[in-house]
């Protein structure tokens, strides 16, 4: 059984199909069409989801809430900067450290056991992300309530949206995971993150996304980036056509180290962004060139169609004119045949010509419009219609005519009218035994 034919595409859909194929590099036109149909021919959504599918980045148009976020973290060239807690100094410091060590070990061990057992009783609510944007906005609000409004500009959106924006704009994305219960979090936020130096540096150089790991969205990002300690920062950028973690900062870092380490990471990876910008410019130029070629093709196609239309119109007009001429010729031929038949009928209906010595006969010489002369005899008692019918039956006579006497000049009433339904006889018309009558052509009139 043959498969049903797919409906034809409109011109706008065809242009979107070619543009989508150019942007994604797919060779199969059927696959491009299926993808666009799945997105209701929204080319932006289709292209974004296609790129996300290739690179493992969640879609901003239809983000899957339960799928773990995928960012390339396996690059062995990731720069890591970990700040360890200072070691105890002096006898007093070591004594305090050794005394507290059993208590800390017991506390964290029991806490881990408690959390592990709690998972069987009540699953971790952070494992289900229902409102990622709400989680981020809630964290920003609580952060400002505790540390004030002097901080880097937070990206107010989901992590997947921040990734997509950074990818689209070819910018660095700095991700900060906030550990509420960690002992260094409060000092880092007050002494490093909210300082004027750090605020100015972050706001002018990159996008900044942050969330607490106590929120489902922050917890999901934590599972993807796998931090070791807090405070935790990750620098992400588009590298080799994938959103990749290129730097990690962990631990309590000071403002000057914060700036210098991020500057080092950015300078070390600047060539990748430059390469991607060049590729995008090349793709854009290719797209513009293809669009110009398509426009030129469409213009040429429209010109050819217009030329064909005019040619068809001229041919149709010529055909109509030829048909009109043919119909006129046929009508003229029919009229001529009808006229000949009428002449023959009139000729057959004419009474016989009287003899020369008949005292009632009248000899009439007719002078035709072509200067030929015709002579015939008629009877005085015959109607003038007989004269008209005789002349009408002649091949040389015009189709319409009237008979005129020479002197005095008058038109003989040969045909019946409303006032005179019965034309007079030759005698009543005052004709003598020998007459010369003129035939006047009325065909043009």
TrEMBL record:
Q: Provide the residue span(s) of the region labelled Disordered.
A: 298-358
Q: What CDD domains does this protein's entry cite?
A: UAS_ETEA, UBA_FAF2, UBX_UBXN3B
Q: Among its keywords, does the record have Amino-acid biosynthesis?
A: no
**What organism does the record attribute this protein to?**
Hippocampus comes
Q: What is its main location?
A: cytoplasm
Which Gene Ontology terms cover its molecular function? ubiquitin binding
The UniProt record lists the UBX domain at 357-439
Descriptive protein name: Fas associated factor family member 2
InterPro entries, per the entry: FAF1_2-like_UAS, Thioredoxin-like_sf, UAS, UBA_8, Ubiquitin-like_domsf, UBX_dom, UBX_domain-protein
Q: Which GO terms describe its cellular component?
A: endoplasmic reticulum; lipid droplet
Sorted keywords for this record are:
Coiled coil, Cytoplasm, Endoplasmic reticulum, Lipid droplet
* Locations listed in the record: Cytoplasm; Endoplasmic reticulum; Lipid droplet
Report the superkingdom from the record. Answer: Eukaryota
The annotated regions of Basic and acidic residues compositional bias extend over 303-348
The processes (GO biological process) annotated in the record are: ERAD pathway
Question: Could you tell me which PANTHER family the record lists for this protein?
Answer: FAS-ASSOCIATED FACTOR 2, FAS-ASSOCIATED PROTEIN
Q: Pfam families annotated for this entry? A: FAF1, UBA_8, UBX
